[in-house]
Amino acid sequence: MGSSSNGIQPAAISSGDGAAPAVDKDVDFANYFCTYAFLYHQKDMLTDRVRMDSYYNAVFQNKHHFAGKAVLDVGTGSGILAIWSAQAGARKVYAVEATKMADHARELVRANNLEGVVEVIEASIEDVNLPEKVDVIISEWMGYFLLRESMFDSVICARDRWLKPNGVMYPSHARMWVAPIRSGVGDQKKIDYDGAVDDWHHFVNDTKTHYGVDMSVLTKPYLEEQKKYYLQTSLWSNLHPNQVIGQPAIIKEIDCLTSTVNDIRNVRGSVSSLITAEIARLCGFGGWFDVHFKGRDDNPVKQEVELTTAPSEEFGTHWGQQVFLLHPPKRVAKGDDIRIKFDMIRSKQNHRLLEVEFDCEIRHSSGDPNPSFRKKFFIE
Fold first, then answer.
1. Which residues are annotated as catalytic?
2. What end-to-end distance do the CA atoms of the chain give, in Å?
């Protein structure tokens, strides 16, 4: 269990369908895992009521999946999911955690008198050898826009190595959504970008005038850097539902029992969204996810539970939504149809980060010309 997305995961990942790019484990630990070794970060997740209530209800409303069973918690963090699994009647819980948070998890397990059931193992899941196969794999692996951080790779590895043939996954399914939105943030980002450009030109002139060095050769890479930061990097937001101006569309569905690393390494989809607001500015797109606890066809849950990170007035989450802003905004009206081709890949520089491209056409219901545009974004 983990983080603003959460959990823990390893550096080099392998699965039945091939390995991910090689990653330096020491660098990966310093850049990623260490974040989860701090209690303040765990607290951010433990105070997310949507997250906590969803997992709590999924476990305790479906005790038949846990009673007398062996459970594997991938990325246990503070150990809360492992503790709940034991309280729901599990015979044995293997709680795997790659950071020193494992020490805190052991203390918590002892304080709740469950050390005879819950075994905390400090290791990455790829390096663990368990004495048995398990009936349940539980993990809170979801990152921003579901797949940032690539932790699901580790869950897949655990599933392929340690889940019994009739075992269940908690959660069992996931979906990724996008929808057109309106927002004033894009205007401010453009102002900030223009300010950064002006500041650079003043800097170049001043440096040449006062110090005799011409810095203009660096203008192009500097402006590219600023453009990426201000205009192409997605933003975290808790959107209000009235900022969504069109029908949300599912761009990816994941069956946690059968999906492979190759299935999620490149996410592509073609969807359409009908504008539902009156005349509005299309300022960009919002992206979010939901996960479901359904069990499996031959071993279903008794009570299905959904955890959603969709825009909400009352039930915001620490995941929020990812916002992809357009510059300039596009004018749309009720009944217009936005055709979206979506393409998301992992960053070549860091496999835990993502690059997203929207290729869109607006089909105006008024009969006006149908503009198209393409925009690339970075989820960092």
1. 140, 149
2. 20
